Structure formats: structure tokens, C-alpha cells
């Protein structure tokens, strides 16, 4: 990203734009979603072995069910309705966690009815924190489908519940406090041969067997600090736990090979094995930055490739696959008719192409190479730029992408770099060359999308663009700016070129040089793009996407450049992200070059930071989880744009702005950074800003602001730094060789 100028103050504007939180997105794994229950709190629905029935727990005081009881639901019914619910627990006490026995004619569930016919009181929040009760009165029973209890399987002091059956019908796993802690236990299907499976301090629960019956997956809270351990033990004495910090674990059925799968923080729970046994679906609020929000996620059993599954509503949990793997049942508060209502939903499960998921390992590999000291900051025109460019070419070749034009992937350009800001000699400056690296994915489609980022950076500060004083000779690695964006383009190139889908759009993957000297490479490409590819419908730009902060703040610029872009951006937002939306097509990066050629653009940007344009912008500070989520986000947004019937270009204007500390005002132009000393050449003018209001046009050459002479971009910035907001000054410029003066209110 280029050095801040008056127009670079748009960065700060982006960060102040309104935050949008949208509650739904693309649930591509779920098709034909059907609502099964209507009213009350319906949860933990699990399939019978033949997939024709569900057992679930229901609480609905309005329907005479004061606390959880177990109900049977017939999926073969002609209509999905709460009328299909049939009580099969005693109707006394409180129940939880029902599960079918192998014969499909009996169920397991836990109940407190032996201790009391009344519902035990739920725990009250402590210090504002939510608590789960682990009622010591719970024991596990087996009942037939008429509700008759045929066997009591546990009868020991303390909590016994959460029982599930192995697919091979040999084992029952459950959670018990009989050892003094909440651990996983197994027993044979007849209730004999009890064995403790886990031993670590903390709540181990909600277990399920793998489809081959060899493994268990479960949630666990494992307190580590003395304070957390003391709190856990104190709460357990009161028969409650605080389910705010849980991770997903697996182990063999005998307890060996214990592995922590997630390390996400917050509450990760309700896990269930994918039919392949190579993935786990679960509920999590790890993404949440504000309020209550649980979504379903899926992750590989090695802890990689986390993928968001649900997008709609603020509570999605208790997922279970049907035995044949074709259906998913889950609980959600979507489509509520009343507050705090949770219903059961069923959907066809669609497995998608894993190639279409961004991989953190690829992002890290490419950023680590580009931002290494060996590449010395990738200055445009340097031998290290050539090394970086050759590396990028090899990446494109490995994906079997075509060159953008001709037989190689390079697009060379020449320009002048002004090294001395006080140099007033006309047409002076260092002659320099740069090379864009551009590849093409030909899907034989009638439209094309450009996905781009700049790969150059500041080198050893030879061009004096660093924000650190006296830093010439120091390597500016530019990990975030913009190895992060380049890695994103390369990953999207992999996803689109290696997936099983042939999209209805072609892709140009453009990696620009010369951006730090004034968008030189992107401007050069944009000049002839429509001649070479007249069917380009959009340009997607990623610049500095590697430093997503704890609040998950991401700026998306350019949403006003097409009427449909805002909807695409909002619908596909990752859970928990706080998105700042900016309409302007003009911004501090390469998308501006394409906007000025009337091409709709989007700009993804995680914001400036203290390492911006300093030698400290290094690879070890990249947030790879955040970047992966952003690349997946760009993939979804790009797909939605490709599916649009029409992508209409719209000119934009800025509705608000705030300047940085150095520049107190903005003129509202896009300056040409590489021009000679006959004045500042104006590449673009933003609507409804001071320059446009005063009549300044693209192509004008500004020579004076007030009494301050403007020779090039550097003196232009010096002039702006002396102006106060609200001042009115004459601005002198040349247009077609004629000198003009207008009054501008800054």
C-alpha cells in the first residue's frame, strides 16, 4: 500500500465507516432445509438407525412441558409439525440426552424422575456468567418407544448422563462424576464392564463415536491456571459448570491417543463425526466479538481447514448426520416466532470441494518467501523484484494458468522515480522499470474478473517512502504490505484452477509492481485492459489483509461501484467480523486504477498499524487464521459477483472523511506519484470533494496552492500540511497548456 498522502487519508475514513452485522450467508452444505418443530425449546435431535425417526428433548411451558422431556418424531409423516412429537419419557423430573439403541426400538436417556417428580431448579448466573447444571440426580435409563422404562443402566451417586451408542452396537459412552470429576466412561451395551476413559481435570462430555466405532469425539473444559482450577472445583461442588471455555478433543475408545483438535478459545462443543470420520462438525462462538452467536463449523481431525457451515441466526448447535450421511439434523433459533425459541431443522447434506478452502500453510509459505530478508523488500526495479517475479511465475505455471498476453507472464513498464522531493528540475527523476506478473484462467466464459494485489514494497527505502526516519539501508520486508495480498491472490488462483467446478467466468490473476511509487503497474495494466479483455466485469483488490485485529475489523471499499456489491459483501460476511463498508471506488491502492477506467471494484483491507511502511512489517506478525478467513470471504464474494446477471458500473462519491495527523485537509484527487516537476498531475477527481467542487478535472496539472509552489507530489503534500480545515485558498493549475486559478475551500 502506498505512502499516505491527502488521498491516503481515505484509509482513516474507511476505519471510521459504519459497522454492519449481517445475520446470514451462504450455507452451501445445507440444501432443502426444513423446520421440524414449531415453538418451545427443541434440541438434541438424533436419528434412529434407519433414519426414519428422531428422538429429541423438548421444553415448552405453554404446551405443558415445564422442563426437558424426551419425545419421538416421525420423519415419515406427510407433514413436518410439532404434532408429530410423541412423549416417550416419563413426563416427570427433568431429562436429557436421548439416543437410539441398535435395535431402533429402544432409547437411552438420563432423568431425575427417581429423585422427584418436579423439575429441578436451573442454576442462576453467577457474576453474570452462564452456568450449566450437572444434576447429581441424573441416571441413565433404557425405554421402549411407548415410553416404558425397561432397564436402569446407572445407579450411583452423582451425575450420569449424555449417553450415546457405538454404531457397531457394542458400547455405550457417557459422562459421569462418580470418580469425583466429570469424566468420560464406557460400558458394554448391557450396562456391564464399566471403564473410565478420560482422566484430566475438567468437564469431559457430549461424546459421540466415530462411524467405525473406534474413536470418541467430545467437548472438554480443561482449566489450567490455579484460579480457573479453583473456580471449576468450587462450581462442581455446587453441581454446576461454566461452559464458556471448551475445546474439541478425540481419543480412542479405550482412552488412548488423546488429542486436542481445536484451539479456538471460547465455547466449542456439540461435536459429531462427519461420515468420512476425517472431519468433525461442531458448534462454536469462538468468532464472536460481541454478544451471543453460535454457528456450526467443520474441521479436519488434524485441526486444520476450519470451515463455517451455518450463517443464519445466532444459535446453531447439536448437529448429527443420519446413518447414511445424506441428512443433517440440528437445532437453531432461526425462523423464530418468539424470543428464546429453538427449533429442530433437517437438511440434505452436500459435501463440497475441499480445494475451495483457503489453506493457511500455503499462505504462510508464500508470505514467508516474499517477506524474507533475502528479497530485501522487493523494490520495483531491483534484482530482488525479479527474484520475486520469477517465484510468482513459477506459482502460476504450477497451476497450469495461461499468460495474460503473449508467451510469458510478465508485463514490463517504464517510469521515473523522484528521489529528491526538493528537486525542481523538469522531467528529472530516476529512470526505472518494473514488471507486473499476470496469469489467466480461461473457463471459456463470456465475462472475466480481475483479482489483484501488488507485490512490490520499499526495498531498503531507496525511494524514500518509509515512515521511519533515517531508515535508508534497512530492509522493509512488507509482510502485510503486501505479501499478504499476494498470498491471497495465489491462493485464490489455486482454488479456482484446481477445483472441480468450471465457473461461468474467466479469471485474471494480476500481481502488480510499482504500487508504492504511485500505482504505476496497475495503471499501466488498466490502460489497455479493456482492449485486451473487453468482457471484464469487476476488479477485486487485496492490499494489507494480514493483520486482522481482535475485533475482526475489515474494510471493504468500492461497494458503491456496482449496485449489487453491497449485498454480495454483506451476505457472505464471516461470522463475528465487523465490516466497515466504503462506497468509494477511489482508495489508497491499485483498484483505483481500474475504477478510473469505469470498472466496478472491491478493496479488502485490514487497516494500518504501527509497522506500516517500517522495517518492522515482518512475517511473524501476520494473523494467518484471519487471512485465511478473508481469502475464503473473497472467494465467496467473487463467486456471488460471477453469478450476477448484470454487473453495472456506478460512479461513487465520498460521504465522510477524516484526515491524519500530518495532513489536516484533503483536496480529493488521485495524484500521479511518478510525474515530472512541472506540477502535480491529477489522475482522478473524487465527486463532492473540494477539487471537484472547484472545477478541477482529471488531467489538470496543479502548480500552486495559495502561495505554496507545487512541483510534484512531495511538495504538494508539504503544501497541504500547512493548510487548516476551512481555509479558502486559490489553486493554480494548467489545463491543455492554459493556466487557470480557482478558489478552493479545504
Automatic annotation (TrEMBL):
Q: Which Gene3D superfamilies did the record assign?
A: 2.30.42.10, TolB, C-terminal domain, Zn peptidases
UniProt xrefs under Pfam families: PD40, PDZ_2, Peptidase_M28
Annotated family: Belongs to the TolB family.
Q: Which GO terms describe its molecular function?
A: hydrolase activity
User: What is the name of the protein in this document?
Assistant: M20/M25/M40 family metallo-hydrolase
InterPro entries in UniProt = 6-blade_b-propeller_TolB-like (IPR011042), PDZ (IPR001478), PDZ_sf (IPR036034), Peptidase_M28 (IPR007484), WD40 (IPR011659)
The UniProt entry, under SMART domains, shows: PDZ
Q: Which residues form the PDZ domain?
A: 665-737
Q: Which UniProt keywords apply?
A: Hydrolase
Amino acid at each position: 500500500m502506498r505512502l499516505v498522502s491527502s488521498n491516503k487519508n481515505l484509509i482513516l475514513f474507511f476505519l471510521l465507516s459504519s459497522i454492519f452485522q449481517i445475520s446470514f450467508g451462504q450455507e452451501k452444505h445445507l440444501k432443502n432445509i426444513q423446520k421440524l418443530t414449531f415453538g418451545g425449546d427443541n434440541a438434541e435431535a438424533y436419528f434412529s438407525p434407519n433414519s426414519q425417526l428422531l428422538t429429541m428433548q423438548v421444553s415448552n411451558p405453554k404446551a405443558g412441558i415445564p422442563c426437558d422431556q424426551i419425545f419421538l418424531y416421525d420423519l415419515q409423516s406427510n407433514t413436518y409439525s410439532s404434532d408429530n412429537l410423541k412423549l416417550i419419557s416419563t413426563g416427570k423430573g427433568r431429562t436429557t440426552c436421548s439416543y437410539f439403541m441398535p435395535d431402533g426400538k429402544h432409547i437411552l436417556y438420563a432423568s431425575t424422575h427417581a429423585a422427584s417428580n418436579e423439575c429441578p431448579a436451573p442454576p442462576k448466573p453467577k457474576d453474570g456468567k452462564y452456568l450449566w447444571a450437572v444434576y447429581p440426580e441424573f441416571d441413565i435409563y433404557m425405554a421402549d418407544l411407548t415410553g416404558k422404562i425397561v432397564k436402569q443402566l446407572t445407579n450411583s451417586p452423582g451425575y450420569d448422563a449424555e449417553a450415546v451408542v457405538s454404531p457397531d452396537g457394542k458400547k455405550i459412552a457417557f459422562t459421569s462424576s462418580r470418580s469425583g470429576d466429570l469424566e468420560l466412561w464406557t460400558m458394554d451395551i448391557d450396562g456391564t464392564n464399566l471403564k473410565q476413559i478420560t482422566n484430566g481435570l475438567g468437564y469431559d462430555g457430549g461424546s459421540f463415536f466415530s462411524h467405525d466405532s473406534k474413536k470418541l469425539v467430545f467437548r472438554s473444559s480443561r482449566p489450567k491456571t490455579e484460579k480457573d482450577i479453583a473456580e471449576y472445583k468450587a462450581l462442581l461442588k455446587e453441581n454446576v459448570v461454566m461452559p464458556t471455555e471448551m475445546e474439541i478433543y478425540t481419543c480412542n475408545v479405550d482412552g488412548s491417543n488423546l488429542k486436542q483438535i481445536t484451539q479456538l478459545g471460547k465455547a466449542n462443543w456439540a461435536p459429531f463425526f462427519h461420515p468420512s470420520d476425517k472431519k468433525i462438525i461442531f458448534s462454536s462462538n469462538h468468532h464472536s466479538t460481541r454478544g451471543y452467536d453460535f454457528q456450526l463449523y467443520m474441521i479436519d481431525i488434524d485441526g486444520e481447514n476450519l470451515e463455517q457451515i451455518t450463517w443464519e441466526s445466532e444459535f446453531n448447535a447439536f448437529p448429527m448426520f443420519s446413518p447414511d450421511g445424506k441428512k443433517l439434523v440440528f437445532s437453531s433459533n432461526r425462523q423464530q416466532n418468539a424470543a428464546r425459541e429453538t427449533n429442530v431443522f433437517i437438511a440434505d447434506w452436500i459435501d463440497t470441494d475441499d480445494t475451495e478452502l483457503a489453506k493457511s500453510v500455503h499462505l504462510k509459505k508464500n508470505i514467508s518467501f516474499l517477506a524474507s530478508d533475502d528479497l530485501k523488500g522487493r523494490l520495483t526495479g531491483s534484482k530482488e523484484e525479479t527474484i520475486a517475479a520469477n517465484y510468482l511465475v513459477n506459482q502460476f505455471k504450477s497451476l497450469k494458468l495461461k499468460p495474460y498476453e503473449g508467451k510469458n507472464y510478465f508485463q514490463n513498464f517504464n517510469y521515473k522515480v523522484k528521489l529528491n522531493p526538493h528537486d525542481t528540475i523538469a522531467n528529472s527523476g530516476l529512470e526505472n522499470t518494473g514488471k507486473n506478473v499476470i496469469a489467466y484462467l480461461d473457463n471459456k466464459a463470456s465475462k472475466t474478473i480481475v483479482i489483484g494485489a501488488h507485490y512490490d514494497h520499499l526495498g531498503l527505502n531507496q525511494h524514500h517512502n518509509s515512515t521511519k526516519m533515517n531508515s535508508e539501508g534497512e530492509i522493509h520486508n512488507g509482510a502485510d504490505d503486501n505479501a499478504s495480498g499476494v498470498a491471497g491472490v495465489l491462493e485464490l488462483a489455486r482454488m479456482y484452477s484446481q477445483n472441480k467446478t468450471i465457473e461461468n467466468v474467466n479469471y485474471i490473476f494480476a500481481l502488480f509492481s510499482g504500487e508504492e511509487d504511485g500505482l504505476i503497474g496497475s495503471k499501466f495494466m488498466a490502460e489497455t485492459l479493456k482492449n485486451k479483455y473487453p468482457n471484464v466485469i469487476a476488479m477485486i483488490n487485496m492490499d494489507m489483509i494480514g493483520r486482522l485485529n481482535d475485533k475482526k475489523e475489515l474494510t471493504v471499499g468500492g461497494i458503491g461501484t456496482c449496485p449489487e456489491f453491497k449485498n454480495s459483501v454483506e451476505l457472505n460476511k464471516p461470522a463475528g467480523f465487523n465490516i466497515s463498508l466504503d462506497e468509494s471506488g477511489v482508495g489508497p491502492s491499485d483498484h483505483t486504477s481500474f475504477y478510473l477506467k469505469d470498472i466496478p471494484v472491491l478493496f479488502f483491507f485490514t487497516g494500518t498499524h504501527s509497522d506500516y511502511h517500517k522495517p518492522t512489517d515482518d512475517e511473524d506478525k501476520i494473523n494467518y487464521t484471519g487471512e485465511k478467513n478473508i481469502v475464503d470471504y473473497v472467494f465467496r464474494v467473487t463467486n456471488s459477483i460471477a453469478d450476477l446477471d448484470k454487473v453495472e458500473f456506478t460512479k461513487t462519491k465520498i460521504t465522510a472523511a477524516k484526515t491524519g495527523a500530518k495532513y489536516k485537509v484533503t483536496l480529493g484527487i488521485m495524484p500521479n506519484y511518478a510525474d515530472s516537476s512541472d506540477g502535480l498531475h491529477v489522475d482522478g477527481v473524487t465527486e463532492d470533494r473540494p477539487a471537484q467542487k472547484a472545477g478541477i478535472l482529471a488531467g489538470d496539472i496543479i502548480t500552486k496552492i495559495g502561495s505554496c509552489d507545487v512541483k510534484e507530489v512531495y511538495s504538494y503534500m508539504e503544501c497541504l500540511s500547512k493548510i487548516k480545515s476551512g481555509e479558502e485558498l486559490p489553486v493554480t493549475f494548467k489545463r491543455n497548456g492554459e493556466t487557470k486559478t480557482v478558489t478552493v475551500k479545504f
